[in-house]
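Sequence design from tokenized structure. All designs in this work follow the same two-part layout: the structure record, then the generated sequence. An example of the structure record is given first.
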């Protein structure tokens, strides 16, 4: 509900009590404040600006998952080199969330029976140690319950997940890369080249997210985020926390939204690397990426180009 004068007065009184203590001398603790705050906001409609439709490269997601724990195993689509869905995330510009907008919501997988087989292939849970539907449950309770209160086309489980599948068919990152005839798994690419291929296909500024491997100090293509407004129209992905707009002065597409290092190549893996056994070569050698940089001149001026060399894992 919107704040009125009573709300403002109540919050001010609460603030005073938090500072000086309750009448009996015992100050409110953080749990008390959180409970009261939640009760004030419970009827508010969640505010957000964007719907971030996130596609993930499951091979990188698997590699990252395995790196967290040696006992982790992966679930991958068939074929493995298929872009899959991570989620649809309502997001306020320059803010994380909103999230978990309906605390009473319960996930009911039976509502997805008509599309469950498609979800198992295209909205796959890479973390195979967990139940198959745990990713769907998490995405619905955290993000779907917020979208549902504002966007009619997403106001049920079936609509929310069905829209994700429809968008994958229409806006697949794999199709965008294939259309460029230049970006394919198994090679290294510059951030500039990837961004150009995506911009040429979508006509909007998408967000490119890299996984930075702390052991090898290499960066892997991990996710691509496509943004829609609340009318489900494509829009630029500005204002996503953790990503920034980076200048690309030598590129026709002048900027990119990313967390990737623009000065280093990005590996787009074609398979999940095998874990090195004891006595094998060091990981930084195993994952060494060979490339060279040269300057060429064309009608658009000097450009950075990489010699794309397929990475072979021992």
């Amino acid at each position: 509900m919107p704040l009125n004068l009573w709300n403002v007065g109540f919050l001010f009184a609460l603030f005073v009590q938090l500072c000086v203590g309750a009448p009996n001398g015992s100050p409110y603790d953080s749990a008390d404040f959180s409970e009261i705050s939640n009760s004030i906001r419970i009827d508010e409609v969640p505010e957000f600006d964007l719907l971030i439709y996130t596609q993930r490269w499951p091979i990188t997601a698997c590699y990252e998952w395995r790196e967290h724990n040696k006992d982790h195993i992966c679930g991958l689509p068939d074929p493995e080199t298929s872009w899959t869905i991570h989620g649809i995330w309502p997001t306020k510009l320059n803010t994380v969330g909103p999230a978990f907008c309906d605390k009473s919501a319960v996930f009911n997988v039976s509502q997805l029976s008509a599309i469950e087989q498609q979800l198992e292939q295209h909205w796959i849970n890479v973390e195979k140690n967990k139940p198959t539907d745990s990713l769907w449950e998490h995405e619905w309770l955290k993000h779907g319950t917020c979208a549902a209160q504002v966007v009619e086309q997403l106001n049920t489980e079936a609509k929310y997940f069905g829209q994700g599948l429809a968008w994958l068919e229409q806006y697949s990152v794999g199709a965008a890369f294939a259309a460029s005839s230049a970006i394919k798994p198994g090679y290294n690419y510059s951030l500039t080249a990837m961004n150009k291929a995506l911009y040429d296909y979508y006509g909007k500024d998408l967000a490119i997210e890299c996984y930075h491997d702390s052991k090898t100090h290499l960066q892997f293509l991990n996710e691509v985020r496509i943004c829609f407004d609340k009318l489900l129209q494509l829009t630029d992905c500005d204002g996503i926390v953790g990503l920034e707009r980076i200048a690309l002065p030598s590129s026709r597409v002048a900027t990119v939204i990313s967390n990737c290092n623009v000065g280093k190549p990005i590996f787009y893996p074609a398979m999940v690397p095998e874990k090195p056994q004891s006595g094998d070569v060091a990981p930084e050698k195993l994952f060494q990426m060979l490339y060279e940089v040269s300057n060429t001149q064309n009608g658009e001026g000097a450009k950075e180009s990489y010699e794309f060399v397929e990475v072979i894992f021992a």
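Residues 5-20 form the longest helix (16 residues). We note this feature because it recurs in several other targets discussed in the main text.
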